């Protein structure tokens, strides 16, 4: 894959967790919360993305290329087609 391109290999999914808390309330307002028990029901899956690192043009087509290098690359390109 060339530079600047990306593709999503797999979408991520959120996980699920069961949590029991001890909640202390005074006059209808929550004063403190303590976790008593927690259990992971479904693990979260990460989103995986591939990023391209291959240069868009062959190295010899870069601005610093000589005439001879450009002729060779042009010949290879016509041979590929």
What composes the largest sheet? 2 strands, antiparallel
Low-confidence stretches: 75-81
Strand/helix succession:
EEEEH
Shape: elongated
Ends apart, CA distance between termini? 20 Å
Mean pLDDT figure: 78
Class by alpha and beta content: alpha+beta
> How many β-strand stretches?
4
**Strand order, biggest sheet?**
1-4
Which terms summarize this structure?
elongated, 1 helix, two-stranded antiparallel ribbon, alpha+beta, two-stranded antiparallel sheet
Description of the structure:
- Helices cover 17% and strands 42% of the residues.
- The protein is built from one helix and four strands; from the N terminus they run ββββα.
- It is α+β, with helices and mostly antiparallel strands.
- The chain has a two-stranded antiparallel ribbon. The protein has a two-stranded antiparallel sheet with strand order 2-3.
Briefly summarize what is shown.
The chain has 81 residues and is of the alpha+beta class.
Q: What's the topology here?
A:
Elements: E1 6-10, E2 16-26, E3 29-42, E4 48-51, H1 67-80
Antiparallel strand pairs: 1-4, 2-3
């Amino acid at each position: 894959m060339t530079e600047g391109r990306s593709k999503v290999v797999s979408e991520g999914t959120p996980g699920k967790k069961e949590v029991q808390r001890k909640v202390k309330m005074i006059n209808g307002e929550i004063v403190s919360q303590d976790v008593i028990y927690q259990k992971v029901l479904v693990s979260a899956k990460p989103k995986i993305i591939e990023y391209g690192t291959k240069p868009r043009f062959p190295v010899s087509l870069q601005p610093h290329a000589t005439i001879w290098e450009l002729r060779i690359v042009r010949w290879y390109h016509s041979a590929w087609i």
